[in-house]
Amino acid sequence: MVNVNRLVIMSNRLPVALHEEDGAWTASPAPGGLVTALTPVLKRHSGVWIGWPGTTEQVELAGALETVSAELGYRLEPVQLNAEQLQGYYYGFSNEIIWPLFHGFETRCNFEPAYWHDYQDVNRQFAAATAGVLEPGDFLWIHDYHLMLTARELKRQSPELNCAFFLHIPFPPPDIFFKLPWRKEILEGLLAFDLIGFQTLRDRRNFTLCLQQLRIPGLKVYGRGAVVDISLGEHHLRAGAFPISLDYQDIQRHAATPEVEQLAWLFHEKFPDRQIMIGMDRLDYTKGIPERLAAFGLALERYPELRGNLTMVQLTVPSRERVPEYERLRHIIEQLVGQINGQYTEVGDWVPIHYIHRSVSRSEVLAYLRAAENAIVTPLRDGMNLVAKEYVACNLDGTGALILSEFAGVAAEFKRRAILVNPYDIEGMAAAIQRVYLMDINERKRRMIKLREIVRKNDIFTWVENYVVTATHRHEKSALTVDEFAPDFKLSDTE
Ligand code: GDG
């Protein structure tokens, strides 16, 4: 069992959604896998969550946050940011530099020096807000790439603080990472943590390769497994692979409710005697949506048996709409959908792609996933990709087939139980689409049973437990073994 005095979580956003009506602000809990997993631990350890509440307006939020706090069972501590800070630190440094760079899209980076200053500034502000909350013996767990410098700031004041970090996105190899003008500062910032968690062994290895190549004086890395020890002078830390997961039982339960069952039934009723292939992503260039649509178009051209018999439903959730890059991507996607539908639609009968560009309710998400015979999850790069795991958890009848990118973190766990594809290989993906369409029920079941077992065993609670245990027993022998938690994915696993 997790053994910490008090758990303090810090992330860019507080787990709340704010609502404003006639100048009055209210808040409600924002659902999500991480919130679900951390809530019981935070409750048990009278925890605190620190983050930006979601508005740059100078408004009084204490009352609204207290109400949500009471509902969630732990304290919420807001870090107020103004519009300029948000622009430079979040939209700029985090989303125009770190996000593309860490996903391997270095040509999309805008290495604007002013962003770096805002990033440092806001990281200092988060650290200062946290310092005011911390008590002796607290365990501080910081999430994601927005806050990589906070430990360095905090440790200046409290060197004994136990402070861990988890990176939700990939960590790039040295030839990409070293393009970052502030590479040394970022690595030094990360080294101030006591534990650095990555999604996969590959990310952990990329990180230690970067450390070794930067030749930081006095730095030593011990071990080669999922979790390695690092020493830098008197400071000892660990870096490890901890593949994130979801609340399998809860999703399964929700997917089995009469509400979701009926939604799934109504949804499939609209496509009688046809297979559905679902794609579901935040609208983001890392998710490989245009490539996937092109592959579907090619599959329709090459394999005429798919026409009229396989419908693609692509749900893209609006995201980061203030970044021009995302607006352009939306146009590309809409153009492709228009082209393919224009070419193949049979009026009054069959439309190849049903495209949805809006956020839908959690129950609808689960209903789409439950109803679809096939899912296509083909990011060009992804830290993990929870949609793939959600598809598996929702597949109650165990007959779904999953096409999965080799470059999603989840491929390291699912391996060949999914149909692995290179998302840049349009012909290969088109062939995979035909393959799942033709896949017989026995093969579908064989694969899905194993996939469900993988997600059931490594759910979000196991993830929290493994992470916190590793963070809080860092001077003892690691409880993790190399293969148990981070089986690395090899290209030879591709079929
Ligand atoms: C980052 C990393 C890593 C989607 N449409 C709707 C909706 N969703 C939900 C999905 C899923 C979530 O959004 C997306 O999660 P992903 O993991 O796929 O991707 P990112 O947002 O990029 O997350 C990623 C993750 O962090 C966790 O560490 O796996 O690699 O990039 O849960 O179901 N939810 C609702 N309406 C929608 O329309 N309610």
Secondary structure blueprint with pairings:
Layout lengths: L5 E8 L2 E6 L2 E6 L3 H12 L3 E5 L9 H11 L2 E4 L4 H20 L10 H19 L6 E6 L6 H8 L4 E5 L7 H4 L5 H9 L3 E4 L2 H14 L4 E4 L4 E6 L2 E7 L6 H8 L2 H12 L5 E8 L6 H14 L7 E8 L6 H21 L8 E4 L5 H10 L2 E4 L8 H9 L6 E5 L5 H4 L4 E3 L4 H13 L2 H17 L2 H13 L9 H4 L10
Helix pairs in contact: 3-4, 4-5, 10-13, 11-12, 11-16
The structure holds GDP-alpha-D-glucose.
The site of GDP-alpha-D-glucose has 18 residues, from strand 12, strand 13, helix 13 and helix 14.
Question: Descriptors for this entry?
Answer:
2 domains; 9-stranded mixed beta sheet; Rossmann fold; alpha/beta; 6-stranded parallel beta sheet; disordered C terminus; 495 residues; binds GDP-alpha-D-glucose
Structural overview:
The protein has helices at residues 33-44, 62-72, 83-102, 113-131, 150-157, 174-177, 183-191, 201-214, 248-255, 258-269, 289-302, 324-344, 362-371, 386-394, 411-414, 426-438, 441-457, 460-472, 482-485; strands spanning 6-13, 16-21, 24-29, 48-52, 75-78, 138-143, 162-166, 195-198, 219-222, 227-232, 235-241, 275-282, 310-317, 353-356, 374-377, 401-405, 419-421. It is of the alpha/beta class and 495 residues long. Helix 10 (258-269) packs across helix 13. The longest helix has 21 residues, at 324-344. The protein folds into two domains: 6-241, Rossmann fold (3-Layer(aba) Sandwich); 248-458, Rossmann fold (3-Layer(aba) Sandwich), CATH 3.40.50.2000. Bound molecules: GDP-alpha-D-glucose. The site of GDP-alpha-D-glucose has 18 residues, from strand 12, strand 13, helix 13 and helix 14.
